[in-house]
Write a structure and sequence with these properties.
This protein is mostly helical. It has helices spanning 11-42, 67-73, 109-117, 124-130, 143-152, 169-173, 180-195, 199-214, and strands at residues 48-54, 79-85, 134-136, 165-167. The strands form two sheets. A two-stranded antiparallel sheet has the order 1-2. A two-stranded parallel ribbon has the order 3-4. Helix 5 (143-152) links the parallel strand 3 (134-136) and strand 4 (165-167).
Length: 220
């Protein structure tokens, strides 16, 4: 498939995402304070977990970087710090870039609740205001995992042509990845979103996200 060029900012989409993020922060501020308190009371470590993720790639020529050079100087996009409420025990040895499984023994008891309800994602509203993310867009990945998937899936880097999101078309239409085939399906959905993105589509995805969280519904 031919690589997508970098998408010029859709200011209607961006304004909608920022407006929703501001409203969500105001509405959930008491809840976020309560979550922060419960994290501190239930386990040692920081309230907010910070992790590098690969963001938007603003290069406009749409040309793929050669495989020989991409490993040394091409990280696939702007790397930013993404925020989440901490759901795992603090790791004094540092955090390896690995996929977290549903039954990961590092997850705390309260962390299980936060993950099940997706409330651990709330601090990413700050990322939206900072311009790192939108509410809606492809989910950002860790740099090392991104590099692996980019080598396995030819179109994977094309997801970086827009700002990553807290939720997206792939998240409301498919559950958690269990294998590479699942990742490929999500990439196809991400690229479909990029080609047809609009404020109306963003609103539709936002509306479908709540049932996914509360009812575990996947819109297939």
């Amino acid at each position: 498939m031919r690589s997508l060029r970098w998408q010029q900012p859709d200011w209607g989409c961006r304004a909608l995402n920022v407006g929703v993020a501001l409203a969500a922060i105001l509405l959930t501020a008491p809840l976020m304070l309560l979550i922060a308190l419960l994290i501190k009371l239930s386990s040692q470590g920081p309230v907010v977990f910070r992790q590098d993720r690969v963001g938007v790639d603003r290069r406009t020529n749409g040309e793929a970087v050669s495989r020989t050079s991409r490993r040394s100087d091409d990280r696939g996009g702007n790397v930013f710090t993404m925020y989440k409420f901490r759901t795992m025990r603090a790791d004094p040895q540092g955090t390896m870039q690995v996929w977290a499984s549903k039954d990961d023994p590092r997850i705390t008891g309260f962390g299980l609740i936060l993950r099940a309800t997706r409330l651990d994602e709330l601090p990413q509203l700050v990322n939206v205001l900072k311009g790192d993310m939108n509410i809606v867009g492809p989910r950002p990945e860790q740099p090392l995992i991104f590099a692996e998937l980019r080598d396995e899936i030819e179109e994977y880097r094309d997801r970086q042509r827009v700002l990553p999101g807290i939720t997206g078309l792939a998240q409301v239409n498919q559950g958690y990845d269990t294998d590479l085939a699942g990742v490929r399906k999500k990439v196809d959905l991400d690229l479909t979103y990029i080609r047809h993105r609009s404020p109306i589509r963003d609103l539709s995805i936002m509306a479908k996200t709540l049932p996914v969280i509360v009812l575990r519904k996947v819109w297939t």
